[in-house]
Amino acid sequence: MISAAIRLGHKYQMSKLVAHAVGYLKTYYTDDLNIWTAHKLYFPEAFDENNVIGVVNLARLAAPIYPTVPAVLPAAMAVCATLGPSGVLDGLASDEDGTVEHLAEDDARRVLDAIPRLMLATASGVLRAFAPCAAPVGCAGLAMGGCGAGARALLCAYARDPRLVAGVHPF
Fold it and tell me: Counting runs of H as helices and runs of E as strands, what totals does the chain give?
């Protein structure tokens, strides 16, 4: 329904229809962290997870005419990253006719490039929560001995270089 409203509104230049549909999308794909975190899911309950591919494509379609539409892109692209590489590449299958909608090549590259960066940022955040290190030198005094100090030093090392924990390379 949202897709049809944006596509028809765009084609027939019905700005109020597009604005209404985009307003709905902005309640989920928002740049307001309080709104974003208030939702249980990263997408509307009526959507499937991979419908976010369609959201990105709709935003790209409507953006040249409706300047507020690109506001949904950062959040929608981040949700695309949660699909993983296979989900991004598999695309969004249509229920009606079996066609598959994919991200544009540039958008797919952006999402695929972001996945390991998001993994590293998440790992670093988790590790810093358990071993808060204000600076790389913050762990220097922990080598005084004892298992607790050693574990904390290891966590601090992981926090400084999360690739040790969440790198995409298996070795």
Answer: 9, 2
- CB-based contact 76:54 (threshold 8 Å): no
User: What are the structure tokens assigned to 82, written together?
Assistant: 């949660």
108 backbone dihedrals φ, ψ, rounded to 5° = -60, -40
Contacts of 154 (CB under 8 A, 6+ apart): none
Distance CA 130, CA 128 (A): 5
Name the band, by pLDDT with cuts 50, 70 and 90, for residue 76: very high
Residue 106: both structure tokens together:
């540039």
Cα Rg for the chain, rounded, in angstroms? 21
Nearest to 146, CA basis, from 154, 135, 137:
154
Q: What is the rounded CA–CA span in Å between residue 50 and residue 82? A: 9
- For residues 71 and 53, give the distance between their C-alpha atoms in angstroms, rounded to a whole number: 15
> What does pTM read for this prediction?
0.73
CA distance 74 to 11: 25
CA quadruple 160, 164, 169, 171: dihedral, nearest 10: 150
| Alpha carbons 36 and 56: distance in angstroms, whole number | 17
Alpha-carbon span 104 to 53, nearest angstrom: 10
The residue length of the chain stands at 171
